[in-house]
Amino acid sequence: MWTGYKILIFSYLTTEIWMEKQYLSQREVDLEAYFTRNHTVLQGTRFKRAIFQGQYCRNFGCCEDRDDGCVTEFYAANALCYCDKFCDRENSDCCPDYKSFCREEKEWPPHTQPWYPEGCFKDGQHYEEGSVIKENCNSCTCSGQQWKCSQHVCLVRSELIEQVNKGDYGWTAQNYSQFWGMTLEDGFKFRLGTLPPSPMLLSMNEMTASLPATTDLPEFFVASYKWPGWTHGPLDQKNCAASWAFSTASVAADRIAIQSKGRYTANLSPQNLISCCAKNRHGCNSGSIDRAWWYLRKRGLVSHACYPLFKDQNATNNGCAMASRSDGRGKRHATKPCPNNVEKSNRIYQCSPPYRVSSNETEIMKEIMQNGPVQAIMQVREDFFHYKTGIYRHVTSTNKESEKYRKLQTHAVKLTGWGTLRGAQGQKEKFWIAANSWGKSWGENGYFRILRGVNESDIEKLIIAAWGQLTSSDEP
Ligand SMILES: *[C@@H]1O[C@H](CO)[C@@H](O)[C@H](O)[C@H]1NC(C)=O
Ligand SMILES: *[C@@H]1O[C@H](CO)[C@@H](O)[C@H](O)[C@H]1NC(C)=O
Ligand SMILES: *[C@@H]1O[C@H](CO)[C@@H](O)[C@H](O)[C@H]1NC(C)=O
Ligand SMILES: *[C@@H]1O[C@H](CO)[C@@H](O)[C@H](O)[C@H]1NC(C)=O
Ligand SMILES: *[C@@H]1O[C@H](CO)[C@@H](O)[C@H](O)[C@H]1NC(C)=O
User: Is pLDDT above 60 for 166?
Assistant: First the structure.
């Protein structure tokens, strides 16, 4: 009985081999040479697959450790095959050309390559010759049965996300769909937008809050708890490099509300600044915060409701739709109705000249607690875009080629409070709470926490604030 089975199995195998030989001879592949080159490929299920010298690895190109993403349909076997270093140990589900491509590529003459008549494969799907697909920030064209991809560095990098999330850095990273598909270059070009502070700004005298030095500062402080309804949450600058305008308008709005004791609680319009602050003419193309504060002092802004953000920041008709004139008694009035005609109030809000707050942590805390949120100029690096939750500190990429993945640029945000947390090792970790301008889906509801007291990402280097210009008639 057992012998009978053996004969059956044997004859089955011989038929299989014979059929494969027939098949291959039709395709003019030198089976003989392949067999003598390495006999180990003759073992078990490997045999059947090994004789198909397909395009898998050539097209998908991954020969690293087990990579579940690097899988493709193996047509002949109606199965999935992998193309990665795991195949060194476990061969049953490896792409047929794993060895030839990843281990012995040079020995293969180019004429053995064509197997599929035309086109390329990706995730088990066939694409015509000349097809273009997008892979994150790169586009790949199927040409000569291979995907040829552009080599941009992408803003979202899974290795970096993984590195942050596996490490003990105090924060976690996420893949944001709004950044997926952008190059690193474009991320820095479109999502930040504050010019490095001018020497004039940096040489400003530092003011210290008038609170006595001995004031007890709480462990935890959030501006929106102390002044509910008077402070303003993060907006989304989208692909408009204008953090210079978003942070300035937001700090000014909070401070006018606090100073007027809730009489004027409108958020101020960053679009008004972007479109009308003429010296920053390329509003979505970065600007300086000195000019923003100058504009708030000299011209004033209407509310965000009156002059909302344009849907398409790249629209060419992005001209200034608001003007103000002086009434001769130190107040300015709008000369045009609101661009958003549903909003009737086109009141102009103005500020005092800005002042610099000391970089001393305690001084910054006193200033926020006494007068409201402040503007902070920070240096943003590539990992910051991935921030999801926790206390941010810069994580240096461990990638060997990390130079090309690194970038650094100035950004402006709003500090709204602080706190203390016990770290994983039980140590005390102090943080600032800051509002970014990347919408509420980013970070902690649009906010982030960042290490406090160690000048992380230069967050304490330049702190700016201003007073609202309220006349006696404005006083509540
Ligand atoms: C065949 O491949 C195995 C595993 O890749 C290798 O260890 C062996 O040296 C190869 N033999 C020949 C003759 O190339
Ligand atoms: C990241 O998100 C995008 C869009 O939401 C998605 O298409 C992509 O597969 C994700 N990438 C990773 C590595 O998770
Ligand atoms: C905006 O327009 C410029 C020039 O026309 C272009 O280079 C850029 O990619 C556009 N940005 C977006 C986000 O569409
Ligand atoms: C910061 O200012 C406080 C007083 O407000 C002072 O006690 C402290 O030493 C200063 N810290 C530094 C680093 O200068
Ligand atoms: C913060 O760091 C920057 C750059 O390292 C430095 O220029 C600046 O003086 C530092 N500021 C403080 C307050 O330590």
Answer: yes
Q: Determine the Cα–Cα distance for residues 373 and 253; give it in Å rounded to an integer.
A: 10
Atom of ligand 4 nearest to the CA of 360: 1
Identify the residue whose tokens are 């992005």. Answer: 318
Query: Separation of 438 CA from ligand 2 center, angstroms?
Result: 18
Angle between the N-to-C axes of helices 361-371 and 243-259, in degrees from 0 to 180, rounded to the nearest 10? 60
Long-range contact pairs involving 124-130 (C-beta distance under 8 Å, separation at least 24): 124/72, 124/73, 124/80
Q: How far is the CA of 165 from the centre of ligand 2 (A)?
A: 16
Nearest Cα neighbor of 358 from 461, 218, 244 is 461
Catalytic residues: 411, 436
Nearest Cα residue to atom 8 of ligand 1: 38
pLDDT number for residue 8: 52
Per-residue confidence (pLDDT) for residue 143, from 0 to 100? 87
* Domains of the chain by residue range: 2-102, 120-149, 162-465
For ligand 4, the distance from its centroid to the CA atom of residue 360, given in whole angstroms, is 6
Tell me phi and psi for residue 446, to 5 degrees: 95, -15
Q: Is the CB of 198 under 6 A from ligand 2?
A: no
pLDDT in tens, 23-59: 444 444 443 444 344 344 333 333 333 334 456 676 6
pLDDT tens digits for 362-378? 999 999 999 999 999 99
What is the CATH topology of the domain spanning 162-465? Cathepsin B; Chain A (3.90.70)
Ligand 5 nearest-atom number relative to CA 360: 13
Claim: this prediction has a pTM higher than 0.90: no
Nearest CA to ligand 5 atom 8: 461
